[in-house]
Amino acid sequence: MEQRLGRVETADGTVVAYASVGVGRPLIYVSGWLTHLQLGWELPAERALYETLAHGCRLVRYDRAGCGLTPGTGRPPSLVSELAQLDAVAAALDGPVDLMGVSMGAPVAAAWAAAHPDGVRRLVLYGGWARGAEVSPPAVRDHILGLVESHWGLGSEVLTDIFAPDADGPTRAGAARYQRACSSAATARALLALSYDLDVTDLLGHVRTPTLVVHRRDDRAAPLAQAQVLAAAIDDAELVVLPGRSHLPYAGDRDELVRTVRRFLGLPLARRGADGLTPRQRQVAELVSRGCTNREIATRLGIDERSAEGHVERILLRLGFRSRAQIAAWYSARRDPV
């Protein structure tokens, strides 16, 4: 899959960059805190999440003001501005949309669904909250905000440890660098402060859309109690609690999260072998076992070299390996069992 980039404009002139991948009915993905459409697509674990979500639908993501490819406005972030940006993205799509809000994006998505009962077919809230003030104690919030503002490098590393404790070292290091590349320290601090200030408690009773609230049981960044508040306040909402500690959706058991979301949205579940690989990934693994380079794999399979590289990265992630040699040894063991 390759993403397509575009831009929309809000009523007040804010330009919002968005990316779409896949075809079918639209699924708008309202991301948490900081985003960068291009850099996020280049992170293997994050891209794997988007690609698996996008099978059978059109996944649309966007960078909020001051992040990634969307320029800042000079105005402080607010729920009003968040909803205006989501308005602009939704207006560029046809018909009702499926909507998935992640982390800070969850209360934003819930508020938008409450205001647009006919505009949302199904709503998914992952790792979210109803009241940001309940996410962590005041002293902890003040400490983290101060750290982000005064030492963005250290702040990004501390937050990554909170967001993705189940991720391996390279993934955590990449996530910390990614956060710093998404925005300035001032923007990061302002958006994090907004996430603590968001309170959509009074809006949840107006959500009429079939809703799935999904949360990891030991999420270190957002307490499970807030997911329970969301599910209790939205009529007939379904609450699914998954094992795990990671807040980032692509860390930890990404596959189970994707299966849960796709099942609720009525999208077909991806077919994989017992090893968890797609047929194309098994072809790539075989060629890796033969010592083929990414360029040679691309030539043999009729794909571009970047796609071959992406397949290898996702095989490494899925099998929990760190090198091509491990892939080769694994494939050889499967082919020639002792």
Question: What does this 3D model show about the protein?
Answer:
The protein has 338 residues and is of the alpha/beta class. The protein folds into two domains: 4-265, Alpha/Beta hydrolase fold, catalytic domain (Rossmann fold), CATH 3.40.50.1820; 279-335, Arc Repressor Mutant, subunit A. Helix content is 48%, strand content 14%. An eight-stranded mixed beta sheet has the order 1-2-4-3-5-6-7-8, sandwiched between helices. Helix 3 packs across helix 4, helix 5 runs antiparallel to helix 8 (185-197) and helix 6 packs across helix 7. The longest helix has 15 residues, at 305-319. 43% of the residues are buried. The mean pLDDT is 90.
Write the layout of secondary structure elements.
Layout: E1 4-9, E2 15-21, E3 26-30, H1 37-42, H2 44-54, E4 58-62, H3 79-91, E5 97-102, H4 105-115, E6 120-126, H5 138-150, H6 152-163, H7 169-182, H8 185-197, E7 211-216, H9 224-233, E8 238-242, H10 254-265, H11 279-289, H12 294-301, H13 305-319, H14 324-335
Parallel strand pairs: 3-4, 3-5, 5-6, 6-7, 7-8
Antiparallel strand pairs: 1-2, 2-4
Domain HTH luxR-type: 270-335
Pfam family, one: GerE
GO molecular function: catalytic activity; DNA binding
Helix residue percentage: 40-55%
Beta-strand portion reads 5-15%
Q: Order of SSEs, N→C?
A: EEEHHEHEHEHHHHEHEHHHHH
Distance between the termini: 37 Å
Number of domains: 2
Known CATH architecture of the largest domain: 3-Layer(aba) Sandwich
- Helix count equals 14
CATH class of the largest domain: Alpha Beta
Radius of gyration: 20 Å
Structural class: alpha/beta
Mean pLDDT: 90
Task: Give unreliable regions as ranges.
Answer: none
Major β-sheet annotation: 8 strands, mixed
How many distinct beta strands? 8
Shape: globular
- At the third CATH level, what is the topology name of the largest domain? Rossmann fold
